[in-house]
């Protein structure tokens, strides 16, 4: 077999893997968005939904912290141990890690009960007594999510490592589907508590399925078990990751803390709008994490870092190409999107209007949000932990300062806009300084010019947004949903075509690849490098 055939086979395998992962993640993200729509229609954009979203913040994001440890610390060590000491040593290490993870998450979940009053008081100080009491009850109930999601992530990582990509990517779909089905069946009896119980059952189901998929193909608990604490070797990396996680949670803490003192439904509206804007970013992020990031981690461990840097900028360029257009469209179509999905039922027109405005503020900056997330992950992979902490700390400081000023003058608009402005300033101003001297430095000027070209090509969407937002929510609501949907699809397709056409005129190589693909001139085995543009 020739080298060309080998490259084509590897390229085909990567494309197939990424496609499988993408389909599962796309379905999960859409279903997760539908879950927010369902909660809005069943309970309104109200204090009930505010309490649920506030209570779900801590359990899910603590679980995300453990997910980061698993993928960025434990999985690379498992791979290294398996290569150097063999299958048995790696399996013993995995079993030890499983019991350590179970113990730590169990203790944290138990601590949620006595600490619930303090957590809720600090998280949402503007809630009244009834809202506080409900949030405390929901938080205690959802504390089990910490255990089940963390363990699910552990087995998901192992399934991904052993190339069971479909099984690994099905986690989010299983979790959300179980929660939605349970909520539909029980909301009339248990109300918002049905959503909390459904969240726990969804996490438990996802964990059980990931465990089953792994045991079906791999020996995990076979042989003896050694309960020696292996986790101490991770502490030098885990502690900085905890610092990074704390800084990453500050934006969401600010939404809850500042929003709790505003009008009823503020937290719900902002969380719903942010969920919609992070759907495309989550698709790109999780696809890269499961199918591409392991390769980047291996390149980061190699003696020469040039290949890792090329991969990093290639992924960043591809993500920007997609997310810039999608993000600007989401911002431009914020009002009709809010009317299409969040009107009627128990949702008041004013709340629909606020969701639309929040979408205007959040959507346009998701390319910078992805850059923040992916660069942090990459710096951890390259063992540049201090630089990752600097990026997260600078973003948190910018956001905190902007929130104080902007929310005072513009209420929820300022709160949402502070989120976007902070990450954009951080990306354009702090990244070059923080990454100087690292393996990820050297092409930032080219990347910034690339971003400006993308934003220029997306500028017609800003004009669309200006016209769409001149029409009031009440007028949008009066139109039939099929008319709104048809208008959005037609305008989006037109603007995407204009976007690609302008970038084609600007000689952006990603558009050249697209046009060549449709002319059937693109060869699957061809590798597009991250060098200077033609």
Give a brief description.
By secondary structure, the chain is mainly α. It is built from 21 helices and no strands.
Structure overview:
The chain has 534 residues and is mainly α. It has helices at residues 3-43, 47-85, 87-123, 129-142, 144-161, 165-169, 171-190, 192-217, 235-259, 266-291, 293-300, 306-332, 334-341, 349-363, 366-381, 385-434, 444-457, 459-468, 473-478, 481-505, 509-518. Helix 2 (47-85) runs antiparallel to helix 9, helix 3 (87-123) runs antiparallel to helix 5 and helix 12 (306-332) packs parallel to helix 17. The longest helix has 50 residues, at 385-434. It is globular and about 65 Å long. The two termini are 33 Å apart. The relative contact order is 0.10.
Structural class: mainly alpha
**How would the global form be characterised?**
globular
Low-confidence runs: 223-231, 521-534
Mean pLDDT: 81
Assess the beta-strand content as a share of residues. Answer: under 5%
Distance between the termini: 33 Å
Keywords:
21 helices; 534 residues; mainly alpha
